[in-house]
Amino acid sequence: GAGPIVGPRAMSWYLRDCRKLLRECVPEAVGLLACLAIAAVLRARGDVRNPEHADAEAWDQIKSQWPLLITADTLLSLQAMFRLVVLVSALLGARRGAPVPLAEETSVLWLGAALARVALLARSEAYLLDGPLGGKLPAACEVAVLPILFALSRRTLARAPFACATVLALSATLASRNFLLLAGDGVADGLFMASHSLDLLAAFAYLIRTVLIENRSTDVSIGFAHVLMPAQQALSAYYWLEAFQAVPELVGAGVPFEALQIGNCISLGAYLGASALFFAEVVDRH
């Protein structure tokens, strides 16, 4: 049968599209490369932690298990950095009028999750991340996304404040019945689980918005989000499946380990499904 026609004209169209894409994705590329460069520099600096003698053996064991990253917390630090980059891109796309899946309902839920994480970090140091990328860097990323998320979600907050408050209350209720004992503080441990509950709901909202958006846009921010959202979620899913083993003594109530593992995997599936749908339509258009 006849195959695709490949010739000088088709090649010129392809090169023109590539040049256009490179021009349009400069902010996204710069942001992503900056994150990776910061991560590489901090990792090259090596382990700067000086644990107490009682913790030194456990810390050395952790480093031996994660020789490249030093500690598995590096995965979550990278996730926080990627979230900041993808949200800046989404804000730029929204200002250009693109129907970004990360806006509206998705950003409201992510805003709730981010607020819970910032409140958690302000209340307890038990959830601070370790490793060369840990400490203040991921905490600063969590604070930096707040104004971006508010800008992306302000219309939904104004249109349906009661619905938003109801979802937040339900997430808090779920978190109060399934939480870890890492901080020894019921509020802090509940905030941690609430943030993950809202992240899960945000993943579903992202998928639903991707399905329902009728006016498909070729804005680079949308394609960038569909690449980076599964990537950032894969870091979290891998962490909870491989790096953080279930310990009965750390269970405060319910089934928090199962909730974190299953929830993060479901979120990853939602982002992968949204990306598959988007890129299938892109291929179909071409």
Features:
single chain, 286 residues, mainly alpha, two-stranded antiparallel sheet, 2 strands, 2% strand
Describe this structure in words.
The chain is an all-alpha fold. It has helices at residues 8-24, 26-45, 53-65, 73-95, 105-123, 136-159, 161-177, 186-212, 220-243, 256-285, and strands spanning 179-180, 251-253. A two-stranded antiparallel ribbon has the order 1-2. The radius of gyration is 21 Å and the shape is globular. The protein starts with 7 loop residues before the first helix and ends with a helix.
Describe the SSE topology.
Elements: H1 8-24, H2 26-45, H3 53-65, H4 73-95, H5 105-123, H6 136-159, H7 161-177, E1 179-180, H8 186-212, H9 220-243, E2 251-253, H10 256-285
Antiparallel strand pairs: 1-2
Helix pairs in contact: 2-4, 4-6, 4-9, 5-6, 5-8, 7-8, 8-10, 9-10
